[in-house]
């Protein structure tokens, strides 16, 4: 469950999203309504009451959309030593995925380091990936990084406002590894801007309200902005494109000497209402990271503190400060060399049935697995894995309901197989959904994909990352997926199916309904989340870590059974795609005569 979602097992939630909600489950209004007799005068008056979009509390005479407490949280919070920054951090951005950016950078550097040092001759140079890996590792430190500066441009209808970036938002920059994704830079920039934005606007900006543009308000070409930084640099900053897109600020160029650089703008697609008129407290300038901030502590320091965040009250020209990130470079010995075999998984084209087999004569593959985790979810941990010269992520369970770090090898294998089933099934449904939409001439967002995935078994004694005792030979199983950006967007919760207005969101809502229909009401897709990627010049949302609810609660971890199905039925709002595909009518009647929200 996510704190900000209003959700419950018995269908009396509104499914709303409240960033300042402070307890799990129902929002304050739904909690109140659940205690009252449906149809009573009191129930009716509470039901009609306006609700704060921040915390979810209902107020009889609420002015505007946000209550005083929520707007005060925004105004006073930052002054109290960054507490507010952390608050947004917890609620808005997956905290651990965020700290994982730092961790993944280390782990990637280390994994590569390990490969280069331990296996110099085995490194395949005949592949493109192998060549570029070798190249990037042979360049002197520093040249492998690209300095990205970010300013802000706020959407404006007036000519004056369109002229340039907003000086009150400040600008900042730091070097990034070529292997990092531009979407990770965007998350980072949004986080930085929100420290200021939330103070003056009461609410932080959402991911859907911002985009990257090149300095000078130049747009990205479709299908390019979710690439790795290295790929973006190559496409826009070399060859013929460079004359148009490369940064032309002489001062910046001089400051960066010979370092590769890109100048971007965070475009805010929301008109500013008197933006940044307050005199804001000064952000920490050029503060060096403490030694602990590079560790994988469970409670990471707010990432904003490590950035160059600059407040108002200065000339824009003087705001540019380089952050020293060299601390995190070149740490060795963090990967374990492993030998593994791959399971063979098939998905029946006709029925969608998934079958996984472990052939005895499977080819033995060589790889490296990171010793420290990249990210942690509620139930799974994620590690960096390389096989040959290809980078992947490897996932395993550490919590399946019997307590933390108490998952047997057999259970881990069983539930990872269910995870893979969910990926393969969803991919199968998605293919059918797309062709059904085509047949019915219904326009849907085509930028949706499901992550590839396969299972591997480590040969010999389990690696430290597996969390298994050393004598469990050949027992450590991992779910392996291609490496992606750590930037994640959520579309539904375990029991919350909020409505959305954008094409991608509407398509995923209809897709959930389509699966329910075509599975003969046996499957409700939940916890839909994805990472934005540019694949073959297309912008694609790659779905992963999906959850499902089935009548017998037997589809894997997080399956809430009939209650999970009911949550979908009571919250789903059919849209034009559902209707275009002639999906079944969904009744909002809750079982046992309990009235839904
Ligand atoms: Zn609610
Ligand atoms: Zn509020
Ligand atoms: Zn529908």
From TrEMBL:
Sorted alphabetically, the keyword list is: ATP-binding, Kinase, Nucleotide-binding, Serine/threonine-protein kinase, Transferase
Region Disordered, residue ranges: 277-299
Q: Give the SMART domains listed for this entry.
A: Alpha_kinase
Transmembrane ranges, per UniProt, are: none
Name its GO BP terms in alphabetical order.
myosin II filament disassembly; response to differentiation-inducing factor 1
Query: Could you tell me which SUPFAM superfamilies the record lists for this protein?
Result: Protein kinase-like (PK-like)
UniProt-recorded Gene Ontology molecular function terms: ATP binding; protein serine/threonine kinase activity
* PROSITE patterns the record matches: ALPHA_KINASE
Per the database record, which ranges form the Alpha-type protein kinase domain?
A: 350-586
Q: What is this protein called?
A: Alpha-type protein kinase domain-containing protein
Tell me the organism.
Hebeloma cylindrosporum
């Amino acid at each position: 469950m996510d704190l900000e979602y209003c959700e419950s097992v018995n269908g009396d939630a509104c499914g709303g999203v409240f960033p300042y909600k402070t307890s799990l489950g129902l929002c304050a209004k739904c909690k109140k309504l659940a205690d009252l007799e449906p149809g009573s005068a009191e129930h009716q008056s509470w039901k009609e009451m306006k609700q704060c979009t921040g915390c979810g509390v209902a107020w009889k005479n609420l002015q505007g959309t946000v209550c005083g407490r929520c707007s005060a949280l925004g105004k006073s919070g930052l002054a109290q030593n960054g507490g507010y920054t952390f608050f947004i951090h917890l609620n808005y951005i997956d905290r651990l995925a965020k700290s994982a950016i730092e961790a993944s950078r280390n782990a990637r550097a280390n994994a590569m380091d390990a490969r280069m040092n331990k296996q110099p001759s085995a490194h395949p140079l005949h592949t493109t990936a192998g060549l570029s890996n070798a190249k990037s590792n042979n360049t002197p430190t520093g040249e492998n990084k690209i300095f990205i500066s970010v300013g802000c441009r706020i959407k404006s209808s007036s000519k004056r406002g369109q002229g340039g970036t907003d000086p009150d938002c400040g600008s900042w920059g730091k070097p990034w590894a070529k292997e990092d994704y531009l979407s990770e830079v965007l998350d980072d920039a949004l986080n930085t801007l929100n420290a200021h934005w939330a103070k003056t606007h009461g609410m932080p900006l959402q991911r859907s309200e911002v985009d990257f543009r090149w300095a000078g308000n130049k747009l990205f070409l479709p299908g390019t902005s979710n690439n790795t930084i290295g790929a973006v640099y190559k496409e826009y900053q070399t060859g013929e494109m460079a004359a148009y897109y490369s940064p032309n600020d002489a001062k910046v160029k001089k400051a960066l000497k010979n370092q590769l650089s890109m100048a971007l703008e965070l475009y805010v697609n929301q008109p500013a209402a008197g933006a940044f008129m307050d005199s804001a407290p000064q952000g920490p300038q050029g503060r060096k990271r403490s030694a602990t901030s590079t560790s994988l502590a469970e409670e990471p320091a707010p990432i904003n503190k490590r950035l160059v965040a600059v407040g108002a009250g200065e000339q824009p020209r003087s705001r540019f400060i380089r952050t020293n990130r060299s601390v995190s470079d070149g740490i060795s010995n963090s990967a374990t060399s492993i030998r593994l075999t791959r399971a063979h998984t098939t998905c029946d084209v006709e029925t969608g049935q998934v079958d996984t087999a472990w052939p005895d004569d499977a080819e033995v593959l060589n790889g490296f697995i990171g010793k420290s985790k990249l990210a942690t979810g509620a139930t799974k941990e994620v590690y960096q894995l390389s096989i040959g010269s290809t980078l992947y992520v490897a996932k395993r369970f550490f919590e399946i309901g019997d307590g933390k770090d108490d998952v047997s090898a057999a259970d881990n294998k069983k539930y990872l197989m269910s995870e893979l089933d969910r990926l393969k099934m969803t991919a199968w449904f998605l293919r059918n959904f797309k062709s059904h939409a085509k047949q019915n001439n219904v326009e849907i967002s085509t930028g949706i994909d499901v992550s590839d995935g396969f299972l591997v078994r480590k040969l010999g004694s389990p690696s430290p990352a597996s969390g298994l005792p050393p004598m469990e030979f050949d027992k450590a199983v991992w779910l392996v997926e291609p490496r992606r950006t750590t930037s994640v967007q959520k579309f539904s919760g375990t029991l919350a199916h909020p409505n959305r207005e954008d094409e991608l969101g509407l398509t995923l809502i209809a897709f959930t309904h389509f699966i329910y229909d075509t599975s003969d009401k046996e499957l409700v897709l939940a916890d839909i989340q994805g990472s934005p990627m540019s694949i073959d010049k297309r912008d694609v949302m790659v779905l992963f870590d999906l959850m499902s609810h089935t009548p017998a609660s037997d589809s894997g971890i997080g399956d809430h059974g009939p209650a999970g199905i009911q949550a979908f039925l009571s919250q789903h709002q059919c849209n034009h795609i559902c209707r275009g595909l002639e999906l079944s009518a969904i009744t909002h009647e809750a079982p046992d005569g309990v009235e839904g929200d």
